Structure formats: structure tokens, C-alpha cells
Amino acid sequence: MILLTRLMQPLNTMASSLLDFLMPWRCMICYAVLPSDTLWHYICQRCFDQLEPAPPPHHLLAAFDRIHQTDESAISHIIGRWSAHHERRPGLFDLVYALKYYGYWQIGIELGRELGAATQLLSTTRYDGLVPVPIHPARRRERGYNQAEAIAEGMQQVLHIPIWRNALCRMRYTRSQTTLSSTERMVNTRGAFGAGPDSTRLRGKTILIVDDVFTTGSTLNSVAMTALQLGTARADAATLVVATL
After folding, report:
1. What is the CA 75 to chain-centroid distance, rounded?
2. Interval 127-157: pLDDT, tens
3. First CA to last CA distance, the chain
4. Rounded to an integer, what distance in angstroms lies between the CA atom of residue 155 and that of residue 128?
5. What ranges do the domains of the chain cover?
6. 3-state secondary structure the chain
7. Spatial separation of the C-alpha atoms in residues 150 and 109, rounded to whole Å
8. Residues 3-25: pLDDT tens digits?
9. What does pTM read for this prediction?
């Protein structure tokens, strides 16, 4: 068996090299061919270096509080990795859309590692668990997965804290937030979340809610509010992209 394994190793290497030659990885923003030793499999170093960092957490929280009334704000700290505009710099959204709608799970993991590293730098809080924003079962059937869980997987590789996928659930199917105003977003997500099978994990804990894009924070706030009602001590949030509209 050991001999067979040793014989197979060079064959696997040759097969991998041939596949890289025939179907090389390409940057999903500029379409440049990526080197075989690439760190990221969907974005080149040049495009990565051009991504705009998100505003610092205290700026994000101030913007969040301006939208949500003080007595309705449930989030204590907001971490973003990058900032992007749908029209001026759509490239980053191309990556997010590929993750969200086209099954590119690995994008979430790779970018999630970057978000995990940002969390280490931008937060001194010790988190007990990562809570991906839940999606409705019908939407999960449509896509086959929850993109926030892919991001959380990448973050877990850096932060080494558990992912609580079933602590919360989405109770009702909501409209896409993309074309909604800030007021409509708040109405759309109000009461959308509830206790999941593992909701007891939340009691007395400090959690980090994970999502792909932060626009007005209505979804994040609704998730955080539900978690606090279920006994969570503190709820923070982390997202890959802060959308500037």
C-alpha cells in the first residue's frame, strides 16, 4: 500500500500540472492567468492590492447608528474588510456574486481568511462563536448552500473558534434587499429570524455574526436582536464588503 502511494504521487503531480496548463486559474476581476503558486485562486495580486479597505469599525458603527434608532441597535462592533461601490468598482461584487449565486464556495473560504485576519486586528473582543446569517430553507434549496457559512469557514481557519450554523434560523422568506431603501430593508428583515435547534449555545455568549455585504445593516441588526433576545451577552458583526451606494 505504501509503495502504491509513492508511485501515485508523481502521477498526481503530473495530472495537476497538466490541468493547470489546460485550465489555468484566472482572476475573476481582470481575467489574468494566475501563477501556479497563487495564494488566491480567483483574484490576482494586482487586483487584490487595488481593493479599497473598509472604514474603521467606529465609523461603521456610527453610520449604523444613524440609520437605526439607538434603542433598536443591537450590534456593538462592526468589522468590514473592503469597501466597494456597485458602479465605480464592481469587480469585488463580481466575486461576491460568484460566491452567492454560482457555487464558488472556495471564494468565501479564501476571502473569509482575509476577514478573519482583519478581525484579529480590529477587535480585542474574545468571541465564543461565529454565527453565519441564516438563509431561508427555500433559498438554501435554490442555491444548495449558505454563502455566509463559506466565509465563516475561512474565518475559523484564522480565529480558531466554532461556527454555530444552527443557533438561529430564518423564519420567513424575505425579498432581496438589493433594490430596497433603508426603511424598506428594516421592514423586510424585522421578525425574519428565530431560534434554531442549537439556540441554547447563545446564552451568555459573545458572538460574531458573519455576512457577505453590509449596506444599511438591517439584516445584521435583525439577527443580532434575535440573538440578544435568546440570551446572547453581546453581538458583533463582520462582513467582507461594505457597500457604498
Report:
1. 17
2. 999 999 999 888 888 888 999 999 999 999 9
3. 59
4. 13
5. 1-50, 52-244
6. CHHHHHHHHHHHHHHHHHHHHHCCCECCCCCCECCCCCCCCCCCHHHHHHCEECCCHHHHHHHHHHHCCHHHCCCCCEEEEEEEECCCCCHHHHHHHHHHHCCCHHHHHHHHHHHHHHHHHHCCCCCCEEEECCCCHHHHHHHCCCHHHHHHHHHHHHHCCCECCCCEEECCCCCCCCCCCHHHHHHHHCCCEEECCCHHHHCCCEEEEEEEEECCCHHHHHHHHHHHHCCCCEEEEEEEEEEEC
7. 5
8. 444 444 443 333 333 334 445 78
9. 0.83
Q: Does domain 52-244 have CATH number 3.40.50.2020?
A: yes
Does 17 or 164 have the greater pLDDT score?
164
**43 near 98, Cβ under 8 Å?**
no
Contacts of 42 (CB under 8 A, 6+ apart): 25, 27, 28, 95, 98, 104, 106, 107, 110
Q: Which amino acid, one-letter code, is at 136?
A: H
* Interacting residues of 222 by C-beta distance below 8 A, sequence separation 6+: 189, 190, 191, 192, 193
C-alpha distances in Å from residue 121, one per residue of 57, 133, 137, 151, 163: 11, 22, 34, 17, 20
